[in-house]
Amino acid sequence: MKVKKEVTFSSHKKTVVTDSYLSFRKYEQKRKIGLFLIYLVLIVTCLIAFFPLFWMFGTSLKSRVEAFATPPIWFFSPKLDSYKTLFFKKNAGLFLWNSIIISMSSSFISVVIGTIGAYSLTRFEFKGSQSIAFWILSNRLMPPVARVLPIFFIGQTLGLLDTRISLIVLYSAMQLPFVIWMMRGFLQEIPRDIEEAAMVDGDSWFAAARKVTLPMAMPAIIATAIFVLILSWNEFTFAFILAAGRAKTLPPSVLTFMEEGTVLWHEVGAAASIISIPIILFALLVQKNLVRGLTFGMLKD
Amino acid sequence: MSKQKAKNVSFYRKRFFPWLLISPTILILFTIGIYPLIYILRLSVFNLFLSKPWVPLEFIGINNFKEILEDAQFFNSIRVTVMFTGLAVIIEFWLGLGLAMMARRVKGGTVFRTFLIIPMVTTPVIVGLAWRFMLFPRLGVVAWYIQRLGQMFGIEIPLLLANPDIALFTVIAVDIWEWTPFMFLILFAGLTSLHKEPFEAARVDGASGWRIFRTITLPLLKPVILICLLIRTVDAFNTFDQIYVLTGGGPGNATDTLSMYLYRTSFVFFSTSKGAALALLMLLVMLIFSNFFIKLLGKKVSV
Q1: A57: contact with B, CB 8 A cutoff
Q2: Are residues A124 and A51 in the same domain?
Q3: Residue B130 lies in a domain
Q4: Which of A60, A94, A110 marks a domain boundary?
Q5: Which of A140, A225, B80, B171 is most buried per CB count within 10 Å?
C-alpha cells in the first residue's frame, strides 16, 4: 500500500516512477502468490475437516463387500440396506426415540430453570452473585468419568438405572451451568431500564419481565436451547454407564454394532450418519452465536 | 412518578427474591455436584469392591490413596494425560491462530467457518469411530493411502493405532482434527473484533509483521487466548469418549489417560473405593487448575 502511494505522489519524476512501479508490480505479484497460498491452505483444511463425515456417510451407502474392500472404493451404486438393518433388526428406532426424548426434554427443563437463574444473577444486585456464578461454572469443569461413579450408586439405590427419566434429570442438571452462563451473557445486553419503564407504567414485575424481557430474550433462549440440545445429544459417558438397555441413547448404541465379532463398518457408518448429520444441521442454525456457545457466553461473536 | 421509579429500583435490591429465583439451580447443582462429592469422599475411605461382594466392608482410611500413589499405572496415566492435554492444546492453539490470521486476510471466511464447524459438533464417539475406521490397518482409507505413500518413498509406516510408540500421537492428532476449529473460531472472532488503529500506527512506523504480531496482536488478544486455552485444557483433560473408542487406553497402556484409568478401575475391575479415591484426586487437580485460571481470567476480563 505504501508503495502505491509513492507512485501517485512522485509521478512527475520519471526515474522514480519506473523504479517504484517495478517494485509495486513485484509487491502485487508477491501478494497474489500469498493470497493463492492462503486459499490453498484454507481449502485443504476444509477438505480435511469434511472428509471423515463424507467417508462415513459414503460407507453407510455401501454393501458389506464394498465397505470391506481394499483398496477403498470411491464409486459405487448407493443402497440403503445398512439403514434398513439398523432400524428393522437392531432396534435403532428405539435408541433414536430415546435420544430425541431425552435431549429435547432435558434441554427444555435446563433452559427454563437456567434462564430464571440467569435472570436473577443479572437483574438483581445481591451479595455473592458473582461467586455463585463462578461456583456454577466450576460444576462444569468436573471430569464426567469422576462424577459418574457416585451417580451410578445413587441411581442404583433409587432404582433409576437404565430409565429415560434418570438421564433427563441428569442432563438437565449437567447443562445448567452452560445455560446460566450463556443466558447471563445475553441478558446483560438487554438493559434493565426497559423493564423498569414497563413497571413504571403500572405493570407488575412478572408482567414486565414476561412482556418486555422475555420476547427480547427469545432468540437468545432458542440459540441456547439448540446448544444444549447438541450437548445432550452428543453425551456419551453417562449414557454409556447408566443406561445400558432400554433407555440407551444413540451414541453408546454405536458400540453394540461394533462388538459383534468383526465391526460392521457399513452399519457403523449408517449409525454415525443418523447421529451426526441432524446435529450438524442444528449447529449450522446457531452459527451466528457459535463463539458465544463455545465460550459459555464469555466472548461474543 | 419518581417515587414509583424509586420503588422499582428498590425492587431490584430485594434481598430474598433473587435467591428464590436462583434456588432451583443451586438445589439441582447441589444434588448433582456436592452430594456426589460427599458420597465419593465416604466411599474412598472404605474398601468396597463390587467385584468381590463377599469382602466385608471396612473403614480403611487413606489406604486407597496410598495404593494409588504406589501404583506405577497411576503415574503412567498422569504422564499420558499431561502429554495428551499439553501437546493437543498447544498445537491446536497455534494451528487455530495461524488459520485465523490467514482467514482474516481473504474473503469467504464464512464459508470456511461453516466447514470447520463440522468436526467440533460431530458426536465425539463418532469422531473416534470414524477415525478408527479410517485408520484401520489395510481396510481404512487413510491407513491405505498413507501406506501407499510410504511405499512410494520407501518408508515403513508403522500401525498408527496398534503401535505403542505411535498410538498416543495418533490420538492427539485426532483431537487436533476435532478441536483446532474451536481455537480457530474463537481466535478469528477475537482478531476481527480488534481495533485497526494500533496496527496501522505500527505499520506506519515501519514495524515488521512478526514484530506487530508479537507486540500488538498477542497482547490485545490475551483475554481471548486465556479463555480458549482454559476451556480446551479442561476439555482435553476430561477427554474420554474418543480415546475409549479409538484405543481403549491401549495398546498396553500407551494411551491410558486418567479418565481411562479411572473408568477401568471403577467399571471394569469394579474396585469401587479405589475408583472413588482416584476420582477425588482428579477433581482436586481440576479444581486447583480451574481456580488458578479463573483468578487469572478475573484479572484480565470482566465477565
Answers
A1: no
A2: no
A3: yes
A4: A60
A5: B171
CB contact under 8 A, A139 and B29: yes
**Cell of residue A71, nine digits:** 483398496
> How many domains does the structure of chain A reveal?
2
Residue A17 and residue A113 share a domain: no
Q: How confident is the model at residue B8 (pLDDT cuts 50, 70, 90)?
A: low
The ipTM estimated for the assembled molecules is 0.85
First-to-last C-alpha distance (Å) of chain B: 34
Establish if A76 belongs to a structural domain.
Answer: no
CA A269/CA B130 separation, integer angstroms: 8
CB contact under 8 A, B301 and A298: yes
In a domain, A252, yes or no: yes
Contact B102 A137 (CB under 8 A): no
Residues A51 and A135 in one domain: no
Chain A residues closer than 8 Å to B301 by CB: 298
Does A94 fall in a domain? yes
Would the pLDDT of B259 be above 60?
yes
- The reply to whether B66 falls in a domain is no
* C-alpha–C-alpha distance, residues A256 and A23, integer Å: 65
Q: pLDDT confidence of B11, banded at 50, 70, 90?
A: low
Contact by Cβ (8 Å): A126, B15: yes
User: Chain A window 200-229: which residues touch B at a Cβ cutoff of 8 Å?
Assistant: 200, 205
What total number of domains does chain B contain?
1
Long-range own/partner contacts, residues A44-48 (CB < 8 A, 24 or more apart)? A45/B99, A45/B112, A45/B115, A45/B116, A46/B112, A46/B115, A46/B116, A48/B177
> Does the predicted TM-score (pTM) go above 0.90?
no
In a domain? residue A42: yes
pLDDT in tens, A177-186: 999 999 998 9
- Asked if residue A97 and residue A51 are part of one domain, the reply reads no
One domain, residues A89 and A55:
no
What's the pLDDT tens digit per position in B179-216? 999 999 999 989 888 888 888 888 888 888 888 888 88
Residue in the block written with cell 440396506: A81
* Domain containing residue A181: CATH number: 1.10.3720.10
Average pLDDT, chain B: 85
Q: Locate all alpha helices (DSSP H) within A189-213, ordered by sequence.
A: 192-200, 205-208
Q: Which residues contact B181 (CB under 8 A, 6 or more apart)?
A: A49, B96, B116, B117, B118, B119, B120
Give the CATH number, domain containing residue B110. 1.10.3720.10
Residues A49 and A168 both lie in one domain: no
Calculate mean pLDDT across residues B211-223: 87
Grid coordinates in use for A146? Answer: 469422576
Q: At which residue does the C-alpha cell 491401549 appear? A: B250
- Rounded Cα–Cα distance for residues B115 and B101 (Å): 17
Query: Which of A128-142, A255-269, B93-107 reaches the highest mean pLDDT?
Result: B93-107
Domain, as residue range, for B266: 71-300
The residue of chain B nearest to residue A171, with distances taken between CA atoms, is B32
Residue A46: which domain range? 2-60
Q: Answer whether A251 sits within 8 Å of B123, measured CB to CB.
A: yes
Cell numbers of B83, please? Answer: 502429554
Same-domain pairing of A225 and A258? yes
Burial B231-263 (b: 16+ CB within 10 A, else e): bbbbbbbbbbbbbbbbbebebebbbbbbbbbbb
